[in-house]
Write a structure and sequence with these properties.
The protein has one domain (2-144). It is 84% helix and 0% strand. The chain has helices at 2-29, 37-66, 74-77, 80-105, 111-144. The chain is elongated. The two termini are 13 Å apart. Keywords: Membrane, Transmembrane, Transmembrane helix.
């Protein structure tokens, strides 16, 4: 069981790292487009904000992926809802939090926040797909016993 859980955790972390790299590429390609002294200050602040968002994104991915190890507890692994929460519970809360902040600030917020919401939703979708594979594997193991 530990090997299976570790395999799914490793897959989750690798997906998260690939999404993090893609997120960094996307925010690095964004351009403010204003020249002059004020444009330079805005670009510096945008770069700082982008680095902050990407650091928070990386920490969230690592923390969300660690909850997969809770599936080693029989009570959690055998309950579909609790097992679902270990895969998609925290990513779902993060997406909701980012969406609420995005809506409170208005729909015209910095492009980095939009990208953060999009990449978090993609990570949530990958976690949901991974959960379905995990449940199929667990049901197959139960049937083999």
């Amino acid at each position: 069981m530990k090997k299976i859980t570790f395999k799914y955790w490793l897959t989750n972390i690798l997906i998260g790292i690939m999404l993090f790299i893609a997120y960094r590429v996307v925010i690095a390609e964004s351009n403010v487009g204003d020249d002059g002294f004020l444009g330079s200050i805005i670009q510096i602040l945008d770069a700082f904000l982008s680095i902050s968002y990407s650091f928070v994104y990386l920490l969230a991915i690592v923390f969300c992926s660690l909850t997969i190890f809770l599936n080693q507890i029989d009570r959690i692994r055998n309950n579909n809802f609790l097992s679902l929460l270990t895969f998609v519970g925290l990513p779902f809360c993060c997406v909701i939090l980012i969406a609420v902040i995005w809506l409170i600030d208005g729909l015209h917020v910095v492009n980095s926040a939009n990208n953060l919401l999009i990449f978090s939703a993609v990570y949530l979708a990958f976690c949901a797909i991974q959960f379905s594979f995990f449940r199929k594997r667990m049901e197959k193991l139960k049937a083999d016993r």
